[in-house]
Amino acid sequence: MENREQHTEQDLVRRLAAGETEAFQVLFHRYFRRLTFFAANIINNQEDANDLAQEALYQLWLHRSAFREEAQLRSWLYVATRNAALNYLKSSQRRSQRHEETARLLESAGQDLLETAMAREELLELLLQELEAVPPPQATVLKLLFIEGLSYRDIAEKLQIPEATIRKQKERGVRLLRATLLQKKMWSLLLLLNAAQLGSRGRLL
């Protein structure tokens, strides 16, 4: 079982470089949600973040012959998405003081900051995968609370149900999620979950 997962990833990149659309589809599904979260955290617009992620992946297909390993491909995708987000913020129609500050930060950001963002989005992807095992009512509340960072009041208005119900759904969902994370020994996500429970805002990442 020598580096089986790594071999699979390298094989996937090799097939992509050869122009196999099936390999591209696998990589698209692997990275689309991560890149969308990454872009949304920068531009604060979910719909446009989807477009930026799709554009980065489209550019990946156009440059597919340039990659030899997934680590190189992964880094390229995040840089491409960051640059697209930077261009988005620089656009005259969207310029504001907050956007200008974010754009300056992105321009001066080093590789360490990019690596941190990449790790964060991958943790978020893991969290979403684990939330699939939580019943839909609780999972929806946890996503809105922990991922979108909405308040109890905002969630109640969005779902058209009482705040008390939101709190109960959250408690049940957290119990189920914590039990799953403990069973799988996913300590990083457990720490994030506990920190969110103690913080004033619910957002995990």
Quaternary structure annotation = single chain
Low-confidence runs of at least 5 consecutive residues: 1-7
Q: What's the helical proportion of residues? A: over 70%
* Rg (C-alpha, Å): 19 Å
Structure class? mainly alpha
Total helical segments: 10
Determine the N-to-C terminus distance.
34 Å
- The number of distinct structural domains comes to 2
**Dominant shape:** globular
Secondary-structure element pattern, one letter each:
HHHHHHHHHH
CATH architecture of the largest domain: Orthogonal Bundle
Instruction: State the CATH topology of the largest domain.
Output: Rna Polymerase Sigma Factor, Chain: A
CATH top level of the largest domain?
Mainly Alpha
- The CATH fourth-level homologous superfamily of the largest domain: RNA polymerase sigma factor, region 2, helix turn helix motif
Mean pLDDT: 80
The number of strands is 0
Strand content: under 5%
Coiled coil: 89-134
Domain RNA polymerase sigma-70 region: 27-95
GO molecular function, one term: DNA binding
Domain RNA polymerase sigma factor 70 region 4 type: 125-176
Structure in a nutshell:
GO terms for molecular function: DNA binding; sigma factor activity. The chain has ten helices and no strands.
Describe this structure in words.
The chain has 205 residues and is an all-alpha fold. The protein has two domains: 1-109, Rna Polymerase Sigma Factor, Chain: A, CATH 1.10.1740; 111-205, Arc Repressor Mutant, subunit A (Orthogonal Bundle). Helices cover 79% and strands 0% of the residues. Helix 9 (163-184) runs antiparallel to helix 10. The radius of gyration is 19 Å and the shape is globular. The two termini are 34 Å apart. The relative contact order is 0.08.
